[in-house]
Hints:
It is a single chain. The chain has a domain at about 30-85. Helices cover about 85% and strands about 0% of the residues. By secondary structure, it is mainly alpha-helical.
Amino acid sequence: MNDTPDKEEHPSIDNANRRQIKAILYASAAFFILLGILGMIFSERASELTGLGETARYFSIAMFCVGIFDLIIFSIMFNKGEKNND
């Protein structure tokens, strides 16, 4: 027996999974942005403590850019998916 429900019987399952995936991906992008911002704020303090200030600053800028890039890609990806479902 097949235990998975048919999409015809439960169309909301696909929508719920899609919303969960979207929330996880946007949360990961927000995490990268937050990591980048916090790193930029505290990179001067890291420079005083460890001497890795410039490296920490570049890493923070890279994390911030990754987060922004993720947001752009996810927005494009989900907008195309929603247009195709209509």
